[in-house]
Specification:
The chain is α/β, with parallel strands linked by helices and about 400 residues long. The chain contains 14 helices and 13 strands.
Length: about 400
């Protein structure tokens, strides 16, 4: 099991606070393992006894009788017997429980309860639902393995930085793949199975909740097109026009709901543009990035096709892991790959495979001409690191290890 200390530390910041901790992320990113690591940490470092830790996995058939909020309430109440010591309750994939919000509302405020919930879709975060969890939960996102986590796993096996980075580009960071010994066929089968699971258990279920019933072929065609366009500006009209070319007609409202379903599962992330001159978020023109590039790779005959996107995708999710707000930068007629904002400070980032005479002006001058950033970084695969006109030119793989 890979130790994911970054998330243990994030969860610990909210330990014992009177608020539910919602741990969310894409299916199979290791949420349950992180919870189990956290439980071990509580036992080892805070001497919490087994009797004061309640862990329930609602994807386990053993807990099927607890999928009703009334039954779950009775069960939890029967286990909480002491008032002077805190109980740590972990409800894994809690969205499967009918009226789970009632459980959260009841137990998060009890003085002798510290409540943790997990979910594989944004159902937990939907502020438009009749019963709101706003103000009752703090959200902690779990992402696939970062390159640093991936590297630490293989670095123990004396593999070079370049070797590990190439395999990360190829296989992505879904945690279980590290146990498959870099076997392409086995990893591709595994990623495909997760992709199918997400389609059936998350996206299709999300659409059914909206009384939308569509076939898998339509969903796959939409997904394939968005994957090919990842890293490029796109729109609902672009997607609809592409579907027309393969004789599929669809209304914009339905298409928007389907794309929302992909984002709801945390498989796709929609990124807006940020106007550097007006300091405002633009509502038109956006990009999608895929939560772990391995999902896109299995749809392509050559995963290095559109190499620039592959690098961009990795950088985008690394910035999210580092708790930045991330946008696409618009500066007059030019574009900056990422505007990363944290604690009120902006960092501008360009990503490219290499710096040469053909792209120097576009990559460097786009950064030097942009105003308002505390720091400007150009990431590439070149070994030499230097500063050009206040732009930090860094090796991307080494930056990922910082």
């Amino acid at each position: 099991m890979i130790e994911r200390k970054i998330y243990i530390d994030k969860i610990l910041k909210f330990k014992d606070l009177p608020i539910a901790k919602a741990i969310v992320g894409l299916r199979r990113t290791g949420k349950s393992n992180i919870i189990l690591q956290y439980i071990d940490f509580l036992k080892t470092n805070f001497k919490i006894s087994d009797s004061h830790i309640l862990y329930l996995d609602f994807e386990d058939m053993e807990n099927e009788n607890l999928l009703d909020s009334s039954s779950l309430y009775k069960f939890l109440s029967s286990k909480i017997k002491s008032t002077d010591k805190k109980y740590y309750i972990f409800l894994d994939e809690v969205q499967k429980v009918n009226k789970f919000e009632d459980i959260v509302s009841t137990f998060y405020k009890k003085k002798n309860v510290d409540l943790y919930i997990t979910g594989s879709n944004s159902y937990l975060l939907d502020n438009n639902r009749p019963t709101l969890l706003t103000g009752r939960t703090i959200t902690i996102f779990i992402f696939p393995l970062s390159f640093k986590e991936f590297y630490n796993f293989y670095n123990d096996k004396n593999k070079s930085l370049q070797f590990v980075f190439e395999n990360y580009l190829k296989f992505g960071g879904m945690p279980f793949t590290t146990l498959l010994n870099l076997q392409s066929s086995e990893i591709n089968k595994y990623i495909s199975s997760i992709d199918s699971d997400i389609l059936v258990k998350d996206i299709s279920q999300f659409l059914l909740q909206k009384n939308i019933n569509v076939n898998d072929i339509l969903l796959l065609n939409i997904k394939k097109y968005i994957y090919t366009q990842c890293g490029n500006f796109t729109s609902i009209n672009n997607i609809r026009n592409n579907l027309k070319q393969i004789n599929i007609s669809i209304y914009n409202d339905l298409l928007e709901s389907i794309v929302e379903g992909f984002c709801n599962s945390f498989q796709l992330f929609k990124v807006n543009r940020y106007d550097l001159l007006g300091n405002s978020i633009l509502k038109t023109d956006y990009k999608y990035y895929v939560n772990d590039h391995s999902f896109r790779n299995i749809f392509l005959s050559n995963y290095k096709e559109n190499y620039g996107f592959l690098l961009e995708n990795i950088v985008y999710f690394e910035l999210l892991r580092r708790d930045y707000e991330v946008y696409i930068g618009k500066n007059n007629r030019s574009e900056i790959d990422f505007v990363a904002i944290k604690n009120g400070e902006k960092t501008y980032i360009q990503v490219t495979k290499e710096i040469n005479s053909n792209n120097f002006d576009r990559e460097i001058k786009n950064l030097t001409s942009a105003k308002g950033a505390t720091k400007k970084i150009l990431l590439s695969l070149q070994e030499e690191e230097k500063i050009i006109d206040s732009v930090y030119c860094k090796n991307l793989a080494r930056w990922l290890l910082e």
